Structures are given as structure tokens and as C-alpha cells.
Amino acid sequence: MSVITGTNWTAYDAATMTAREIYGRTLAEMGKTNDKIVGVTADLAKTTAIVHFANAYPDRFFNVGIAEQNLFGISAGLAKAGLIPFASTMAVFACLRAGEQIRTDIAYQNLPVKIIATHAGISFGHAGTTHHCTEDFAVMRSIANMTVICPADGIETSRAVRACVDIPGPVYIRIGRGFEPPCYKDENYDFEIGKAVTMRDGTDLTIICCGIAVLQSLEAAKTLAEQDGLSVRVINMHTIKPIDREAIIKAVTETRRILTVEEHNVVGGLGDAVASVIAESGKGCAFKKHGIYDEFSLIGYAEDLYAHYGLDANGIVDQVRGMMGLEFEEDENWDDE
Amino acid sequence: MPITPDEKKRLKNIAQELRLTMIDVMAWSGGAHIGGSLSIADILTILYFKYLNVKPDDPQWEDRDRFILSKGHSAAGFIPVLAKKGYFPEEELRSFNHFGSPFAMHPDSNKVIGCDVSTGSLGHGLSMAVGLGLGARYLGKTYKIVCLLGDGECCEGSVWEAAMALSHFRLKNVIPVVDRNRLMIDGFTEDIMALEPFADKWRAFGFEVLEVNGHDFDELAAAFDKAWAAGEDAGDSGGSGESGKAGEAGNAGDAVKTAKSGKTGGKPVMILANTVKGKGVDFMENNVVYHYASGDSALCEKAKASIMRES
Q1: Are residues A80 and B120, on separate chains, in Cβ contact within 8 Å?
Q2: In angstroms, what CA-CA distances link B142 with B77, B227, B229?
């Protein structure tokens, strides 16, 4: 049992439940002690798993039908009434179909609406591009007042969903669709919004990643240690905004090589957020953004797509090996800058 | 209850003063959506000086009635009514649109004291009103939420998403009012994108439509009396849906429990207020040029003279 939350998600549970399933169950538990929490969806109660909350508290769960603009407008209104709405739909419909309601009704008024968006990235690969979302980080991180989180697995989803209630403004949490294996063995670790988690220390190169890429990066780091003798640091940057600048700059100074990995377009996502921090720091380093390279994904099951786009451990190993061969200018006066 | 002749006179005076202030705001701000502000002057007056239960000295009072200006571009009409109601000195309106001012072309609830909801992008207000209505019902609050929409705004599909939900949840604590002034920026609504049969559309969405002259205080009072009375049972929660049985997530076929439509009796009420764009200023009335306008002192004087002649 978790000493932090009193729940008992173990690695075993997490491996048999999707992140969204854990989200729904977590929210239902939170509803017991916080009657200000209300749930809202647009005909995706079962799909987003908010159904667990719905069935526990039907008097404070509102299904608005297939109408995402209305979903987020109503959520803003519920927040104006003094409540804490959790609004769930698929990521693409949240950030693009209803992007203006999120920006204008929710973020501009700085309302505590918690957007739990599922089926993000290419996790719903076989649904086709209409149901993919490799743009949400770019959209959400450019909206003022918005906190953007991408948990690494179901266990971290539970931590993020619990933690987001304490943020006074809006929060966007993006999760996938499938049964990704967990990175964490239980909930007993330090999770703080805006504070990256160093999953594995290393000195040759740092992988800064989020979401499904965290476990794959850890696997890659293991392989690289065994086969190449490389010491690779893996940082789980679960909060895309506000980003943990300190962890990035520490990695730059200590490892001099940074690879970012994300299930998102390389334009506007985690990689760009990390790049901005590095550029503004004045420190030079070898740097590569890895993700979806500004294209719409092929169709296929998620695992096949992750392999195709190099978002699995093998793909990440290749990226690291490529970077280790890169030349960069050594600066003897590093500490004086 | 019908309004007394004295009350009507008082409201008319307030509306006239408001219209004069709107002309001032047009001058001070360098330009305003004057036509659609003048068209709602009487609706705003009767709401703020007869119906809305608010406390200007306690603007965040949690049991206050809420007002949402979904046609947010008419801030030049709405913000002066807040000043007149006493939320802040009327003198402050002189800063309208200027650097650092709380007052802009569209109202910001985090800056304007007394403004409940930020609006400006059309088609957003009614959804937020529905959210407030659902929240109030869940919390057992009995306050009303009045949402004033423009007619041109009703081209936005999101208005009808909200109307559908309002009707589905039988939210009689939410009162939509449409300012039917028949003009949008580019011309007459029926030429640009026809709304008619407009009342039938609202009826088809499950509303009882009260069609009134939006400049006639007797008709407005009758409509608001009815809308307010319809909302008296809004504090009752409809309870949970019985249509679905609790099921494990993901089991297709299990319906999801959700807050139910509430009282079955009685439809929600909406008020379709037929108005004249630019009402009160003869040369602005029904004149598309004055959707948005600025005015030099000569034009403002001319406008004010026309407003003074109206009474």
C-alpha cells in the first residue's frame, strides 16, 4: 500500500490496468473526501474511464453528449460555481476541437478545471490520424496559466491526478490509451508538479523524456550500459510546463549531451521546451530532439508505430549512438561563463 | 407582478442615463460597439435595477444572481451599468480601452468588478451559464443565471450545443435572453445567414419562448417574472439517472450513470427580445454603420440630443 496516498496500485495492478483505468479509479477515490470534485465528459465516460467516478457520484457527473466545445464551456461554468471539474475526452478533441474554450473560458479566467485527455500521441494508432494527437504539448504550453503534465505510466497518472487538485488554475494531463508497462513499482516516490524525476543517473548523455518514452529510455540506457559501456542519465520530465530548468541545466553541465524523446511532434513539444532552456542558459551541448518528425503518423497498432518511429528502446539506442559520434566544441572555461 | 408607472419611469430614466453614458464611453474609448450596446440598454436596466439580486459592496457574494454577457462586444453597454449600480465610480469609465484599464471592448471578469464571466468570443457564454446552473443545482444554491446572447451570435454551433444541454438538464435556473436586433457586422442577419424561423428553433430545442419587445418594460417585466418563477424549483436536484445500471468500465452495453435531467415538469424558458440596433439614437437605429463606431464631439452631441428627445 502506498504510504502517500493510501491506495494500493502495485506494479502488478498497473501492468493490468491502462493509465486511464487508474485515472478513473483514482478520481472515484478522490470524490469520497472532496465533494467539490465534479466530473464532465462528452460521451466518452467509458472510453476515458471517468465512468468510475460517474457511477460512484452520478449527482455530480455530467455527460454533455458529443459536444466538446460545450464540455469545456460547461466545465468553466462549474468552476465559476466554486467546483473543481475534471473534464475528460480524447486529447485531440480537447486541445484542437475545443482549444478556444480551453484558452478563453478556462485559462484566461484561470479556473481550476482539470483536463484529463486520453488517447494522446499515436497511442490510438489504428484509429487513424483523426484520433491521434501529436500537437497537444505545443498548443497547451503556449496557453498562459496552463500547467501541462504527461505522466510516465499509470502509477504516475494517479500521482498527477491527485496532485493537480492543489494547483489553483487549469491543468492539462495527457495520457495514452493502452496497457503500457509501468516504470514505477508503486506510488512511493517523490512526485511534485514541475520537478523532474531522475530515473537513472549517468554521466555521458542525458535522455530527457516523458510519457511512454520513459520506460523505453530506461530500457535503452540499460542496453547502452551493457553493450556500449555508456553511462546514460534518464530524466522523466513529467511536467512539460512549468519545466524543471534546474534539472536540464544540471544535465547540460554534467553530461554535455542531451537527447529529448517524446510521443509528440518535434515541433513545439518537450524537445523545444528543453531547447529553449539550454539556449537561454548560454551553455553549449550536443542536442537532439526525437519524436514524430513533423508528419502525420502511419496507421497501425501503437507498439508497431512506436517501433517504426523509433520511440521504442531500440530506436532510442540508435539515437544515443548517433549522438555519441557527434563532435562538439569543448570549452575549457565552462565554469567561468 | 406588473410594474407600476413610477417604477417604469424610474427604469426609463436609468436607461436614458445609461445610453448617454454609452455615448461618452464611445468617445472616451476611441470606439465602441455602440449599436448592440444601445439595443440592450433596456434589458440591462431592468435586470440590474429590478431583477438581479446582487450586492455591489460584496461583488463576490456567493448567493448573488449571475449575469453573463455572451455578446461580450457590448461591454460599452454592460460596464456602464455596473458603474451605475455602484460597483465602481462612473468616473473610472474614462479609462475605457486605454493602457492598463480594466475596461476593454470585451469584459474581463478578473479585472472588472461585478463582471461574473469573461466573454468576447461569441458562442461561449451559454455553455458557461449551463455549467454555473449545474453547479448551483448540485450545491443547492437558488441563484439565477441570466445569459444575454446576440442574435448574430446564434450562428455559432456552440450556442446550440449549450441550448441542447440546458434543455436536457431542465436548468430552469438559467435564463437565456437573445437580443434580436436583426443586424450583424456585415448586414442583416436574414441576408448574411438566416436565423428565421428563429423562435421555432429554440422551441425545437425544448424551450418555452417568450417573445417580447426588448424596449418595453411592461413586456420585459412580464417575461422576467415568468422566467424567475420557472426557476423557483431549480434548487431541486434531479437526482441520478435511473436509465443506467452501475457497470464496470469498458463493458459495452452498460449505460453510464449521469446527473439526470431534473424535474420533468415544465420547459426551461428563454426570452427572445426583439430590439432595434442603435435604439435611442435616431441616426444609429437599424444602421449597420453603427455596429462599431467612434464619435467626435459633434457626433456625440447629436447622439445625446437624440437620446434626450426620446423620453
Answers
A1: no
A2: 27, 14, 12
